[in-house]
Write a structure and sequence with these properties.
The chain has seven helices and ten strands. An eight-stranded mixed β-sheet has the order 3-2-1-4-5-7-6-8. A two-stranded antiparallel ribbon has the order 9-10.
Length: 219
């Protein structure tokens, strides 16, 4: 973990020692997140896991065809299987976990499996993270703002505590929609920051542009 001042633009820079691990998220997201990590960090090893077979095959293909193929690995497994079979601990774990509720379920079972909270409840995720995270490691994730308090309470049970929290809103006048949280095993007062995405339609703030511009051909 670095000791420099934290800004929203650094939230996804992930400038920490290797290796990294990404648990299964919404279908296809481990591939994207892992590729972003490889682009933005010097991590020697980045492992991703995907429970859906088709998404796993796409993830593996994306890795093989990327400039960072020698650093990227994808496992076809559930988070629980991965946590029980892997002996290694990770300096960084990144997740964009499923967080939809019963009201949003669809008729597509494969999509729902990766998308909804009953596929990977927060407490299951946190138990696995506590097992796999190195003593000085960092766990980074993004969740709905409305789930933040509940999630942090569950995290504390696993002795995981917030280091940094960035609350995100679409426009200056809108509600906070997402919380980007960084956790570790050391308990102290979390640093709170805020990020606004747009000032008006397609008029992105400087902070948001700095955060994501490397991943877009045009903004």
């Amino acid at each position: 973990m670095t000791d420099h001042p934290w800004t929203p633009a650094e939230l996804f820079a992930f400038k920490v020692p290797p290796p990294c691990w990404l648990p299964p998220t919404r279908r296809g997201r481990p591939s994207l997140a892992a590729l972003q990590l490889a682009q933005r960090s010097p991590a020697e090893t980045i492992d991703a896991i995907e429970i859906d077979e088709a998404a796993y095959e796409q993830c593996a293909d994306n890795f093989e065809n990327s400039p960072w193929a020698d650093r990227l690995f994808c496992y076809h497994a559930s988070i629980q299987e991965f946590a029980t079979e892997i002996d290694e601990q990770y300096d960084l774990i990144v997740s964009n976990p499923p967080f939809y509720t019963e009201d949003f379920k669809t008729s597509n079972a494969a999509r729902d499996m990766a998308r909804f909270n009953d596929a990977m409840p927060f407490d299951h995720l946190l138990i696995c993270v506590a097992t796999l995270l190195a003593p000085n490691g960092i766990f980074s994730l993004i969740i709905p703002r409305t789930f933040e308090t509940e999630f942090l309470q569950l995290a504390a049970v696993q002795q995981l505590y917030p280091l940094r929290i960035c609350r995100v809103k679409g426009t200056p006048d809108s509600e906070e929609k997402r919380s980007m949280i960084e956790l570790g095993f050391t308990e102290h007062e979390a640093k709170i920051e805020h990020l606004v995405i747009e000032t008006s339609r397609h008029q992105y703030t400087e902070a948001y542009t700095a955060l994501v511009s490397d991943f877009y051909l045009k903004m």
